[in-house]
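Hi L.,

You mentioned the student needs an example of a multi-chain input paired with its predicted structure. This one should do, with 533 residues in total across all chains.
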Amino acid sequence: MARFLSSVPELMDAGLRGTRLPRGRALALRLGAITAFLALWSLLSGAVVVLKLFNPIFMPGPWLVLGNVLDMAVRGPLWIHLAATLERVALGFGAGAALGVVLGLAAGHLASVRNVIEPVVELLRPIPPLAMLPMFIVWVGIGEVSKVGFITYATFFPIFLTTVNGVRQIDPLLLRAAQSLGARGLGLFTRVILPAALPDVLTGLRLGVALAFFVIVISEFIGAEQGLGYLINDGRNFFLVPQMLGAAVVLGLLGYAGNGLVRLLERRLTRWQHPA
Amino acid sequence: MAGGPKIRIQHIAKSFGPAGRAIPALAEIDLDVDERELVCLLGPSGCGKSTLLNIVAGFLAPTSGTVLVDGRPVSGPAPERGVVFQEYALFPWLTVSGNVEFGPLLQSRPAAERRRTVDRYLDLVGLRAHAEKFPVQLSGGMKQRVAIARALANNPAVILMDEPFGALDAQTREVLQDELSRIQRVEHKTILFVTHSIREAVYLADRVVVMTSVPGRIKQVFPIKLPEVRDRFAPEFTQYESDITRVVREEVAKVRE
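Structure written out for the whole complex:
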């Protein structure tokens, strides 16, 4: 169906994205690349064995790693660790997202709130969140609270900052138009500011999900009994390299799924940007 | 409100910049717009015509003077004064009908009434078939039609239009002028219309107000005594065009000096 290309971003999209490959070909290339990656990995671990480069237990092939994951899944422990990690990420990210979005909307909209929160955020933000992990443990111990709290702390920053940015870059003309149509106070907020800032808020959520999986692993290295990070650390202590890599693979899949979920949400909520 | 002008602009002056070194943009503007009248503000760019419109809309506070609409002073943007912008300012996350429904929704009108209003104004601007499209799917001319329908659907006392057709190509521009002229014959709104196109002003206005360049003042007012349906090639039309052109040229020349 013919469609209008009337805005600059649209024209840029059409021009810069280049021609798309047919669906089947694109899929074939993608699957091919994954196969090649696995083949290269197999070759490498095989070479270690054949050429006696070093102890082959440090370089297990992909089949050994996947076999280990399957084994843990069948025996059951995988699900306990997976559930522990997922629960911490869900709670920590949920709290971080709620705080980041609510404070971000308030700070973006009200200069007085912004002037209170921004200096504190700007002071803390340059400190890599991982540097704060030992402090969390000193303050609230090595229990669940410190792990969940740490994710909340780490994910708050990108979500807060993209939300503030989203509110601040709203076209003032849209606000004028809305006010001339009678929008004020809460109505202006829910009907204009929120939807206008939504694309940026969703970008922040996507960054937050990625960061949540990034920091949870490390906080599970320290004083955890369960979780995928614990599996990796446990594997390190006992030279169970397939277990370490297996947990890493599961984490990779989780992050991929989390990102996909937010993308799905983005597509549904911002359909107006690229309507069919 | 009985009998008085719909819009009364009294001694409006506006300057920009810090006190002491402020640059005057508008000086002593007095203008009345009657009910059902379409008045065009015309002048060289930088003459402050858009500034004046923004003051009437309530987006800018005047340095001195007051604007009364239906006898009540303007103190900020309000739904009694609908605005149509050059850049359309449609809500991109709402469909065409969602945009038109925006005002009635805020006034908590019942759903059935809102649907009737949306249908009526989309019919008026000829966009009923595009009701479920999003703004990114529309051409510039269609977007401006939606913006006009959105302003009308909110039933404002007056409509303020800030170079609404300025971003459109010449052909679309004339089509939209025809549409506005036709809509005005049906709706009889009180409209203050800013433009720098003399032809556009003569085609649409009951009165053309020519402004001077910096600081903006009213230089001359031309009542356009032409029939409601106008012919751009009629001798009377071109006569108005050349009369007004002469006055505007003096101002453009002043800016050059």
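You could point out the following to them. The mean pLDDT of chain B is 92. The CA atoms of residues 206 and 224 of chain B lie 5 Å apart.

Best wishes,
N.
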